[in-house]
């Protein structure tokens, strides 16, 4: 389908369909929206802004450091949760919850 089949106008932040031949107005609006988003995304990824950004994502070293930090945090959390004071508090909480009279 051509772009002219999905012409839209922006009026006060509300998307109004000028013409929507695809199974009713709502479906046409959704397709218009996704086509516009796709065009904007492609335009944003090409051109000078992409070439000047210099950082397109995380490198392998950054993933490794992030994974190591997550593992260290998990070990710390496990140590805290399995400590005697926290384990006693959680056990007490569960016992009080189970002994509540309805």
Rg result? 27 Å
The amount of helix comes to 55-70%
Order of helices and strands: EEHHHH
| Sequence of strands across the biggest β-sheet | 1-2
Distance between the termini: 63 Å
Structural class: mainly alpha
Largest sheet: 2 strands, antiparallel
Number of domains: 2
* Proportion of residues in extended strands: 5-15%
| Coarse shape | flat
State the helix count.
4
For the residues shown, what is the average pLDDT?
A: 70
Q: Unreliable runs, pLDDT <50, ≥5 residues?
A: 1-22
Quick one: how many beta strands?
Answer: 2
Organism: Thermocrispum agreste
Transmembrane segments: 61-81
Keywords: Membrane, Transmembrane, Transmembrane helix
Protein name: DUF4244 domain-containing protein
Report on the architecture of this protein.
It comes from Thermocrispum agreste. InterPro entries: DUF4244 (IPR025338). This is DUF4244 domain-containing protein. There is one protein chain. Strands 1-2 form a two-stranded antiparallel ribbon. The protein has 102 residues and is mainly alpha-helical. Mean pLDDT is 70; it is low at 1-22. A hairpin with a 2-residue loop joins strand 1 (8-11) and strand 2. The chain has helices at 24-45, 48-53, 60-81, 84-98, and strands at 8-11, 14-17. The protein is 64% helix and 8% strand. The chain is flat and about 60 Å long. The chain folds into 2 domains: 3-53, no CATH class; 60-98.
List keywords for this structure.
102 residues; mainly alpha; two-stranded antiparallel ribbon; 4 helices; 2 strands; flat
